[in-house]
Amino acid sequence: MSRRLRVGLISWAHVHSPGLADALRSLDQVELTGLYDEEPERSRAAAAERGLALHEDLGSLLAASEAVVIGSTNADHRRYTEAAAGAGLHVLSEKPLATTVADGRAMVEACRRAGVQLATAFPVRESRAILALRDAIRGGALGRVLAIRGTNPGRYPGSWFGDRKLAGGGAVMDHTVHVADLIRWLLGDEVVRVQAEVGSYLWGLDVDDCGIITMDLAGGAFASIDCSWSRPRTYPTWGTVTLHVVGERATTDIDVFRQVLVRYDDSAGRVRHEPWGEDLNGRMIAGFVDAILAGRPVPISGEDGLRALEVAIAAYRSSELGRPVAISEL
Amino acid sequence: MTLRFGVIGAGFAGGTHARVLARTPGAEVVAITAEPPEHARPVADDCRIRIEPSVASLCAADDVDVIVVASPTYLHAEHAVAAARAGKHVFCEKPLALSLEQGRAMVRACEGAGVTLAVGHVVRWFPEYVRAKQLLDAGELGRPGIATLTRGSFSVATARPWYQDPALSGGVILDLMLHDLDVLRWWFGEPERVYGKRLTGRAGALDYALATLRWPDGPIAHLEASWAEHDGFRTAFEVRGDKGMLVHDSRASAPLATQMAGGPAGPAMIPMTTLHETPYARQMRELVAGLSGGESRFVTGREGLRSLALALTVIEAADSGEVVRWRPPE
């Protein structure tokens, strides 16, 4: 059997943490070294439920691992990344990379200095539909891509996602970066200017829950993102990721999480989606681990995370100033 | 007392209005003109009405009370002013005009002549938009937070030449997005500021535009208008308030679908209607009621002027790349 990478999971704070743990356990090329979490009670319950080795302190997890996956609050990404990089470990951080551009830059710099790799969790890149679209764009089937309307609306996730200190913002911070990353990656282009309207109208939160972001790309295309927490409690699923891509030769629609059964559930008194699509987290982590094992650059880097974060930060500033904001102003 | 109508233009709009008027109680369509007049032959034969040789002769006709202006957009002002000067009421297809100056001249001419000016913002008579308006007005959705509206159709590559020239048609914002801009004013009143992007003139017969509007206390609205919808006409909207969300998609609400052996039946501007009273018929019923002194909610010239001005403001934002504060005319 080929070599396995020893990977630890930091923090159970994120709604994605259980999925990340399951994905790590399912991969042949990973030896899951266990969990460190900042809340003892939560971590004991999680470790017991998922059968994870529990590390009472961070140093113990870092000593046992060659790489970490960080599923903490957004605000904690930086300190965990710096600790892991300082111990010579590669890092895969949940999105958004950080809550400020300065923190994101510091993470990239810390990993560069330590000679370790930093990766950002953008699993939607692994969607077969997205990959097919990328092939179609690269193969010229769409002609030049002129415009993209993207959406990633969801429900308000609850817990710390509505806490400005821990999350860095609301819906814009949470739901801008996936689609911003997809657009950059699909077009092989960079966002240069951002306009946004951001508001808090739906959930009675101190943070924003509505946002529409419009972006100019360096190559001349334009794009928008609906990042709102606009799905009601009664919506059949957490949310959606969609792209409407207008090319010179074709128009394409993608609805990434459309592979569902519609379940009419009398016992729950509601309709809900039963997804049957592939596990994107597992594929994303496999891409990260395989790159580390082979000594190749990770497929989705810390810089990728930083570029997407810049769009969210610029969006907040644009809405506040009432004018478009250039990325170079950040 | 029957109102007698004359129609200028025998394209999609002129033909639709003439055929509708031929069956509208209280109305009678007596004459039509087109450029060249022979273009009106099929409609004239269908409706068993005479063809007038010119706009001037139609306006001078003693047996005409109301003129329907369904000529190309760039001729609306000239034709509406001629009709008003002849003492005829005017129903003008949307957009009211190409410019604010033209629109103002039309309103002035009709008010000066003491005749009615109505504008064909027919979406206000589409039942799905009417139902949404009722629910919003009744507070059933709570405080509106976000609204997204989509309207798309074929590229104008096979349309008449004037339609392919943004200087004559106004492009996708003035011709198509205008519908949803009017809907937003009707639903939510006057917005505060406007941003937009458009392809107009950069991609041949393809056109595509996005706009973001903000109301002082919500909602934030995002509009998408496309002349790159190669499968044909489509409308969609989502309206989310803090008590719930409405979702409309014309492709998911067609009660009748027919597949032709040998492939698609060919392009159609608007999908086959599945209502006993079409929105076009309802629009004319309201106009006839209003002109007969009854209660009516037909869209006035001043309303049409405001929606025209809003579309021009989106264009100004798109072409300047700046957020533009909305100031309704007058």
Task: Give an overview in words.
The complex is a heterodimer of chains A (330) and B (330). Helix content of chain A is 36%, strand content 24%. Chain A is α/β, with parallel strands linked by helices and 330 residues long. In chain A, the strands form three sheets. Chain A has a seven-stranded mixed β-sheet with strand order 12-11-7-10-9-8-15. The longest helix of chain A has 20 residues, at 302-321. The model of chain A has no long low-confidence stretch (mean pLDDT 97). Chain B has 330 residues and is an alpha/beta fold. Chain B has two domains: 3-120, Rossmann fold (3-Layer(aba) Sandwich); 126-277 and 300-325, Dihydrodipicolinate Reductase, domain 2, CATH 3.30.360. Chain B has helices at residues 12-21, 41-47, 55-60, 76-85, 100-113, 127-137, 161-164, 166-169, 171-188, 279-291, 301-320; strands at residues 3-8, 27-33, 50-51, 66-69, 89-93, 117-120, 144-152, 193-198, 208-214, 220-226, 234-241, 244-249, 324-325. In chain B, α2 (41-47) links the parallel β2 and β3. The longest helix of chain B is centred in the C-terminal third of the chain and has 20 residues, at 301-320. The mean pLDDT of chain B is 95. The A-B interface holds A 146-147, 149, 151, 193, 195-199, 201-204, 209-212, 214, 216, 222, 224, 226, 228, 230-232, 234-235, 244, 246, 248, 250-251, 322-324 and B 143-146, 148, 193, 195, 197, 199, 202-203, 206, 208, 210, 212, 214, 218-222, 224, 226, 228-230, 238, 240-242, 244-245, 321-323.
